[in-house]
Amino acid sequence: MRIGVALYAQDDTFISTVAQNLEWLAQEAENRTGQKISLFISDGRSSQTSQMDQVDRFLARQCDVLCVNLVDRTAAAVIIDKAEAEGVPLIFFNRQPVAEDIQRWDQIYYVGASAPESGTLQGQLVLDAWRQDPAALDRNGDGVLQYAMLEGEPGHQDALLRTEYSIKTLTDGGVEVEKLANDTANWNRAQAAARTGQWLEGFGAQIEVIFCNNDDMALGAIDALRDTRWEQADWPLIVGVDATAPALEAVASGQLYGTVLNDSRGQAQAMIDLALALWAGEDPAQAVELEEGHYVWLPYHMVTRDNLEELQEAQ
Ligand code: GAL
Ligand code: CA
Known about the structure:
Low-confidence stretches: none
Strand content: 15-25%
Oligomer: single chain
Number of helices: 13
Strand order of the largest sheet: 2-1-3-4-5-11
Bound molecules: beta-D-galactopyranose, calcium ion
Helix content: 40-55%
Distance between the termini: 28 Å
């Protein structure tokens, strides 16, 4: 059995953990079933044109199933038409195609996690902190939460919806907020550090919370704070999403207040289970929990210092 996996960019921290889990879990499934599984992984390096060529190559190599992490999530239709012409089932992951594209063919699936849920849980982390000790967060004592927002790639469902739902959770919870600054840092640590450095110069201690659409950007914000002479006790509260290994270390050291686990292992497991079922011609709904015939949703989980150990033991 051959699975072609097209990554949008292999140097993305979260995506590289998904790829790693796919390799482990394919090996594990091979040992368990005795069925040889070959995984081909390509790196789109953020170019949709390159990714199209890679998909063509997977089809020419007679892959049985394709797993695609789109560079441009509005570009699914071309890939769907190619796969359908060859009768090769498609599993999109992490970068969600629009619903009309998913409906184009019955052999199309999406494995991911609900973007609004991740935003809500990130907002909940901050809401809990505010309720526990409002004075610690509201450093200027004006009863309003002043914040900055580091956003992921423009147009990405996770960037749009985490930005929206994190704040909505606070306002729904009765907290008044004031946005001091927001910008995209494209999921990227160095860009986030540069942006945060400028904000710290411009706003100084006025920023009470930095919301980061992912952990790499949260680590970038931390890099910028470490470059200042501020005591860690004076840093704004920082929250991320993903629960990558370095982010969990930052939670342990108290530099990152919390994050939201984006279950890379669960997503990889669902993709392998789904791929095996599709290859064997079995009913995919028996292999994974399928919604609306196309979607597999993995839950997110809040992570703070309080449940860090539990989480690390479970992994
Ligand atoms: C998000 C993740 C980011 C980045 C992005 C890539 O789900 O939180 O860190 O990996 O996907 O599409
Ligand atoms: Ca305030």
